[in-house]
Amino acid sequence: MPARRKKQRVSLLCRVAGALADLVDACFRTLGDGFAAFVHLLGRLIFLIFRLLLFLLKKIFFCLSCPISALIRIIRGKNNSASRCLKLSGEAFEEYAADVLADNGFKHVQLTPASGDQGVDILCERGGRRYAIQCKNYQGAVGNFAVQEAYAGMQYYGCDVAVVLCPGTFTQSARQLAESTGVLLWGERRLTHMMQISGRRP
Questions:
Q1: 174 with 142: CB under 8 angstroms?
Q2: What is the pTM of this model?
Q3: Interval 28-44 mean pLDDT
Q4: Phi-psi region of 200 (alpha: psi -120 to 50; beta: other; left: phi over 0)
Q5: How far apart are CA 129 and CA 159, in angstroms?
Q6: What is the pLDDT of residues 42-73, one digit of tens each?
Q7: Would you call 176 helix, strand, or coil by DSSP?
Q8: Is the pLDDT of residue 14 over 60?
Q9: Which residue, among 141, 96, 140, has the nearest Cα to 121 in the 3D structure?
Q10: Picking from 22-26, 83-87, 96-100, 181-185, which range would have the lowest pLDDT averaged per residue?
Q11: 135 has which bridge partners?
């Protein structure tokens, strides 16, 4: 008797399951292509939402990483001082100065040829003005001959601003000549400041 009841229950469950299967199949057949199109559209929508979220996450990460990387550069460069450049050769100092200038917002930074540079080592731009920069890297104060070179090179390359860049100081005569010609003198303090912003070690 119990075995017969068990068989009856199994048979009843099979019938119910079969009926449900038939009902689901009938629903699918009734909806037809409309249901398939709905599922396809829903899948596309979920994919687009996922891509949008991924795009937003990338933008947020980029916005957060820029200030952090700038802060890291400043922390790394806080002990930078212009005197560190004195261990560099003249050519290495010019290359280092070009990188520092680029890190400080100067655009189109390029080194002039080693020979025939007409008194200018670096050409660059910032704020719509073209800079002609003469680099001097040696112990002692830089004299007025460097100012003359920078001024002549500015005119030769058709630039707007002439600069003499060095890790030290300038003689009094160099300062007087620079004042009368409009040549900018970027010495130890200015170079140290730019090096700290850059974070690069010479």
A1: yes
A2: 0.62
A3: 64
A4: beta
A5: 8
A6: 777 787 787 778 777 776 766 665 566 656 65
A7: helix
A8: yes
A9: 96
A10: 22-26
A11: 165
Question: Taking all residues of the chain, what is their mean pLDDT, rounded to a whole number?
Answer: 81
Q: CA 102, 86, 119, 143 torsion: positive or negative?
A: positive
CA distance 75 to 41: 51
- Token pair for residue 135? 């680099």
Helix (H, G, I), strand (E, B) or coil at 106: coil
Copy the structure tokens of residue 143. 């004299």
Interatomic CA distance for residues 24 and 149, integer angstroms: 90
Residue 168, classed as helix, strand or coil, is: coil
Q: Choose the CATH number for 82-198 among 3.90.1200.10, 3.40.50.2000, 3.40.1350.10, 3.40.50.720.
A: 3.40.1350.10
